[in-house]
Structure prediction request, 845 residues.
Amino acid sequence: METFLQTTINGLASGSIYALGAIGLSLVYAILKLVNFAHGDFMTLGGYVAFVVNVSLGAPLVVAAAAAVAAIAVVGLITEAVIWRPMRNRGAGVMQLLLLSIGLAFVIRNLILFGWGGQEKRLDIDNTRTFDLGIVRISLIQVIVISIAAVVLVAVGVMLRSTYVGKSMRALSDSFDLAEVSGIDTRRVVTYTWVLGGGLAGLAGVLAGIFTTLRPDTGFLLLLGIFAAVILGGIGNPFGALVGGIALGLVQEWSTNWITPTYKEAIGFVVLILVLLFRPNGVLGHATRTG
Amino acid sequence: MKAVDGATFTVRRGSITSLIGPNGAGKTTAFNLVTGFTRADSGTVVFEGRNVTRRGPDQLARAGMVRTFQLTRVLGKMRVIENAMLAASEHPGERFVNALVPRRWKHREAEVRERAMEMLDQVGLAAKAEDYAATLSGGQRKLLELARALMAEPTLVMLDEPMAGVNPTLGRQLLDYLARLREERGLTVLFIEHDMEVVMGVSDEVVVMGEGRVITQAPPDEVRRDQRVIDAYLGAAGEAEA
Amino acid sequence: MDPLLAFGFWAYVLTVAGVYAIFVLGLQVQVGDTGLLNFGHVAFMAIGAYSLGLMVTNGIPTIVAIPIAVVLAAIAGVLLGLPTLRLRGDYFAIVTIAAGEILRILVQNRQDETGGTLGLRRASGAWRDWNDSMLDWLDGLGLRDLDRRVPLLVITWVTAVLVALLLMHIGRSPWRRTLRAVRENEDAAAAVGKPVFRLKLQALALGAAIAGLAGVYFTFLQTSLYPENFEPIVTFIGFAILILGGIGSYFGTVLGSIVIAFIISGVRFLDFPIAEDKVAALRFVVIGLIIMGMMAFRPQGLFGKKEELHLD
Prediction:
């Protein structure tokens, strides 16, 4: 029971990071039909922005996190203006955009490597403090990660459900063309999508940096798990992505109760494949026919 | 949600049967269900006396049930002639193990090419044979799909609005051609069509659908007089106006 | 060292290019011909390499182990394809990377059998002896003091060219026409009776077998195998080659391999006025820019046919 609760806490923490990454990826995927392989590297970049503000410039971590969120939202908007919109206007296919994003991922990751080198970076936070809650121990960083993620995820959920922009986003993810003819300002919604998706990616990168350490491939290594979360939740469903992310974190950590932790990552992928075998559209996805 | 529910109809061998109904009646869905492109929750499909309900679309096509699509699916990155040749049945060169041994399929390939040219000629696309199919107009794509379907030597060909966008004279010729194939080879034709003149002119039987159900199945003359059919069309039109 | 004179070094770079060429020819069958976005291609190379390594280190003669390794890679293709080929394209891409990672993590963890991160040593079996006898033979022909790397260089490229010729030969068959139809529109292919699923499975298995063969030559080149040799980045480098040379172009694959292998392994030995790890990073920035530039301005690559390119 103790180990179960302990692994649950660990799973919630890592699942929160997956979820934050997954919501942004899912929104961009659903609204812009972009399978963005650079999303993980957006996260990494967020982590490094926070590192610069927090460690190099000595500002508090909160300021650093805000800077990272803002910076990656801007990066998202820049890529939209310079790459994705022009490519869409030229009628680029889904695979074309996907492959392009792989190129972008290479560029971002290796520019980070070029700028900061390959050694691990740490944000300025006490990662040794833990609270003993009787049956389980929870570390300060787990408290931070879980509570920030919880607040942000609830806020995003409310925003998607009840604000005009949120509803427009969901309309666009159902059908871009239909939303456009029904008078939604699609361009504005696309802007918000990048601000939200990029911002969440930046935040996820900071939390990943708090949770472990930062390396140029931190985000890329999380990306496959994030994809798994998105697919588990059903593509185009941001709430599904949230649930998928938390579920993935939990399953990975719970598996360590029976299997060596070195298989943790593999367990997540096995779950992904098993789910797709039985539900080819994800757990919460609705069955749609393509083509 | 059910797009088609309780729709039963029969297509007699060697007949030309048309499937009509207002927009949203479930005609294309019925096609998808019969040809295995959409899996039905319930119901059965019987083809040439055999229950073929759970078969995949490619299996059904090889058994002789070949369809076209309302929104054409020509292979734009392949040449027009390749589109037609693709449909040839029983081609040994399409087997992986034979791919390396041209002498096992050279002969058949030449035959197929010749037949494909004839077929393209029949639909008026012979001059376009070496063009990429992506360069064809909407009407030409319909024609290519028809040629491709007939290349597969079906016993039942199912055409989803084959005349849409095709010039009327050519359309007329194609109908004649289909009628000739029926005489010569016993081809059965089932087609979805909106042009009532065409429907009443060539069909032996007409199946009328409305709101996912079959309203009636009868020869053209009877259908024309059937009050339920008139209601179905008027009802749909009324809703559209409202 | 003056790199332009270091023949052995260039032989190494070109052998790497040859291994990549074979690897990417397998991708051509899957991605170029059939439209299967296989992002786990490196796993098939890993299966070829580790099968060979595990067999020869357990006493099976190398000459027997090679064909078995290739066949095992093909079987892996079938096993992966059976459950996954019905998925939509983007899901298939993610699932294939996931499958490749599962395999790599497995290899990493089964240290007792595979050597894990410590590496599987002497995985190339009898290759060293073969290499020596070939050098002796060449010596007898009057080609004295050849670099030790020459035989593998020649054999790798002869194999790459033979595989390319084989694929071109198959490329003229009606079988490939059906693959191209599947790539463009599965429904259209199925509607005229083409067995879509079986065709995809065949293409996946053929591509996997070719990747397995690349794994065999990789093993000859490296002699020791490590799990980190088979990270997803290898597949993505393969895609960079595919994109640069042109999806659908076998000749482009060959040229793309040389260019990319030079960027990855070659520039290391040119003199830059910056630190070595920075140069390493810039290599991949360049590869990323090549992928982006090609996709933006010339998606058919250097030698692909624009009219036949399908990237939807």
Summary: The domain at 16-241 of chain B is CATH 3.40.50.300 (Rossmann fold). Chain B has one domain: 16-241.
